[in-house]
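User: Show me a protein chain along with its predicted structure.
Assistant: Here is one chain, sequence first, then structure tokens.
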Amino acid sequence: MIYYLYNPLSKGGKGEFVSRKQAKKHERKGEKTECFSLLDIREDISVFLKRLTAEDTVVICGGDGTLHQIINSVNMEEIPCKLYFYKAGSGNDYARGHKGNPFEISKEIKDLPYFNVNGEERKFRFMNGVGIGIDADICYSVNLHNKEKSYLKPTIKALKNYKPFSLDLKLDGKDPVHYDDVYFVIAMNGKYIGGGMKIAPHAVRGDDHLDVYVITSKSKSALLRILILVYLGIHEKFKKIVHFSCAKEVEIKCSEDKKLQSDGEVMENIKTLYVNRDKH
């Protein structure tokens, strides 16, 4: 059986439209299919997936937020069937760099890094990256205004109002490094954030480390120029603003409570962040 799981809220209902269209193609070939809204099975998604067999196939239709919610609701290592992802969201940063639509994620989705916040034990998984600062404020604005099609307007608005902060960054247990005038810090598993911003051009999913960036600036106009260059992935040469490093373990302590974004999903009142490349 081929199961299509769609997010009915994804990009104005595109997830449901795509699911039913693809299901009909399979049915014309004599293959059995079923379509389910993730809103209808949200509380039972883990039970639903675990009862499937190796003969089944699941296609998840939606965007980064859809997949982010699933990987944080289900122990993906316990899922016996093949998993595919069909991009049908707004940003689709996870899908960038993957060939085909849908594309298989069975193996990759079981090897994801995690993070904890504010010293709590709960682990959150992520596919693309997790960051604190203006990127989270931009995501918050985009989500608040019902997934705006463009990140440009929220970015400009955030730049006008945002006040930089300070942080201490500790990598792989080494002595912490202090940064002032921070606009955001991010640990990346993939290359992209914000609907196509190539913040981590060297990142490789499945390798043994995370790509870590701290963006600092005393000038908002200089920062804006850097953000434009990020789309091309050529921002790293501005080393006074873009501070890049690699690490398996990342610890961040902020000077004040900030917003955090992970795969575009936002958490508030974050003071400390711990990130680990190890899937366990």
